[in-house]
Amino acid sequence: MKPKFRTFFTLTIVAVLLISCDTSPLATGDPSMVEGYVTDGDGNQGFSKPAAGIEGATVTLARIKTDGEIQTVSNAEVTTDAEGKFTLETDLENERHLVVIATKNSNEWRAIVSASVQNGNTVRCEPLTTESTVEAAVFEKFMAEYGEEMSKDRAALEIQNAVNARTASEVYLLQPSYVTLATAVRNRIDAKAQLLSANTGSGYPQAEMDSLRVQAQAQLETQLYNANGNASAIQSAYTAYNDAWMEVALDAGIQADHYTQAEQAGYWSLTQSSTSLTGNAEAALAHKAAVHKANAAAYAAAQLFDSLEVINGAAASNVTNVEGFGQTLKADIKSSTTLSGIEGAFQAFRDSLMAELAAAIDANVINVSAEDISAIDTEIRNNARVTLRNRIRSAVGLGGAINIDDVVGAYITFMSDVDARYRNVGVLQQNHAGVATSVTILAHILAD
Q1: Confidence of residue 366 (pLDDT cuts 50, 70, 90)
Q2: pTM recorded for the entire structure
Q3: Do residues 193 and 206 make contact, with C-beta atoms less than 8 angstroms apart?
Q4: How many Cβ atoms are within 10 Å of 80's Cβ, its own excluded?
Q5: Dihedrals φ, ψ of 36, to 5°?
Q6: For 94-102, what is the mean pLDDT?
Q7: CB contact at 8 A, 161 and 263
Q8: Does 148 have pLDDT greater than 60?
Q9: What pLDDT, on the 0 to 100 scale, is given for residue 21?
C-alpha cells in the first residue's frame, strides 16, 4: 500500500519554497526579510470568530539562544499597517526558528519562523495569534531548560506540532502552564525516540527527518499566511501538513506500525505529563496528538491487512473494511472534544480491527477459527494489557514526572507477550502469526 500523498507533498514543498521566497536575490549584502501579520485571533484552526488585523503594533525579530535568552536580530523596529501586516529586515542568513515579537500597549504576540532566512529573499511566518504566541513562549521555556541537549529543529517542531488554538486559549498568559507544556513535549520526544530506537535498532535518520519536517512546517506557515483567514485553505494546509509529518517517517524506512507505536508512547507521555493543566487544556493537547496517532493507525492497519491478503489470500473486502475503520477513526477523533471521546474512538477502532482479523483468519487459514482469535484477544485483554496499563501508570511519579524508560519498557514487554502468544498457536504459520501479532499490538496499544 503506497501513500497517495508522497509525490504531491514533494512537489508542493518545491512550489511553496519557490513562491514564498524571491528566487532572484538582490545585490550582495541585501538583508533577509520576514513578512507576516498580527491578528486578534485565537489560532488558525478550530475557531470561527473573524480575526481583525492589529494596526500600530511594534514588531521586532529575535533569536532564542540555547539558554532561552532572547536576542534581537532585526535591523530596526517596524510598525504594523491597517491590516496588521509588517516586513522585517535582518542581516542574518541561513538561520531558522527565529521569533517575531509584536507589542502594542500591554499586549504581546509572537510566532516562530521555521523557514531559513536568506539575504535578498523574503520568507513568511504564520499569522501572529494566541496560538502562535503560546508556541513561541513554550519554545523559550523549552530552550531555557533543555536547549543544551536538544536541537532547535526538534524542539520547535514538536512544540508547534503539539499546541493548537484550543490549548493556547486555555493557557494564554499562564507562565506555569508554559513550563508544564515544555516538559510534556520533552517527554513526548523522548518516548517516541526511545521506542523507535528499540524497534529499529537505532537505524532511523532523525536529523534528516527533522530537516524535512521543518520544510513541511515552513510550508504550512506560508500557506496560513496566504490563506488570509480562509477556512477551506487553512484546513487544506493542515491536512497536507499532517500527512507530511507521517510521510517523512515512512520515507525514512520506518514501518508504519512501528511509527504508530512510537506515536502512542509519545501521546501517553504527553498527556500524563500535562494533567496539571486545566481540564479543557489537557483535552485539547491530547486531541492534537491524537490526530497524528489516528492518521498513523489508519495507514498502518490498512497496510497490515494488505500484507495479510498477500500472505493467505484474505479477501479484498477485509482490506476495504479496515480502510473504512481508519476513515471512521480519523473522523471521530477530529470531532472529539473530550478525553473520553478520544479514548472511545480508539477503543472502537480496536474492537473493529480485532473482529476483522478474526473474520479474515477464519475464512482463509485452515484449522484456525474466529473463536481462536477471539480467545487470544480475550486473554490479551485480561492479562498482557492489564500488565501494560499497570506498568505505564506506575511510571508516573510525584508532580506528573514520567519515567520514560519504564514507559517504553512496558510497551516492549507487551509487544513481546503478544508475539509469544500467537507463536504458541501451532496451526498458525509463522508469516500468518507475524501479521496477526502486528495487528493485535496495533489494535490494543492504541486503546490506552
Answers
A1: low
A2: 0.88
A3: yes
A4: 23
A5: -170, -175
A6: 96
A7: no
A8: yes
A9: 42
Q: In what order do the strands lie in the sheet with 122-124?
A: 85-90, 32-37, 122-124
| Cα gap 245→247, rounded to integer Å | 6
Looking at the DSSP bridge assignments, the partners of residue 109 are 102
Per-residue 3-state assignment (H helix, E strand, C coil) for the chain: CCCCCHHHHHHHHHHHHHHHCCCCCCCCCCCEEEEEEEECCCCCCCCCCCCCECCCCEEEEEEECCCCCEEECECCCEECCCCCEEEEEECCCCECCEEEEEEECCEEEEEEECCCECCCCEEECCCECHHHHHHHHHHHHHHHHHCCCCCHHHHHHHHHHHCCHHHHHHHCCCHHHHHHHHHHHHHHHHHHHHHHHHHHCCCCCHHHHHHHHHHHHHHHHHHHHHHCCCHHHHHHHHHHHHHHHHHHHHHCCCCHHHHHHHHHHHHHHHHHCCCCCCHHHHHHHHHHHHHHHHHHHHHHHHHHHHHHHHHHCCCHHHHHHHHHHHHHHHHHHHHCCCHHHHHHHHHHHHHHHHHHHHHHHHHHCCCCCHHHHHHHHHHHHHCHHHHHHHHHHHCECHHHCECHHHHHHHHHHHHHHHHHHHHCCCCCCHHHHHHHHHHHHHHHHCCC
337 phi, psi to nearest 5 deg? -125, 0
pLDDT in tens, 320-357: 999 999 999 999 999 998 999 999 999 999 999 999 99
Query: For residues 78 and 97, is the Cβ–Cβ distance under 8 A?
Result: no
The CA distance from 227 to 126, in Å, is 10
Exposed/middle/buried for residue 403 (C-beta within 10 Å: 0-12, 13-18, 19+) = middle
Whole-number Å distance between alpha carbons of 188 and 183: 9
Cβ count within 10 A of residue 366: 7
The answer to whether residue 230 scores a pLDDT higher than 50 is yes
Q: Is the alpha carbon torsion for 138, 141, 146, 151 positive or negative?
A: positive
Compute φ and ψ for 117, nearest 5 degrees.
Answer: -75, 145
Report the b/e string of 337-356 with b at 16+ CB within 10 A.
Answer: eebebbbebbeebbebbbbb
Quote the Cα angle for 437-440-445, to 5°.
Answer: 120
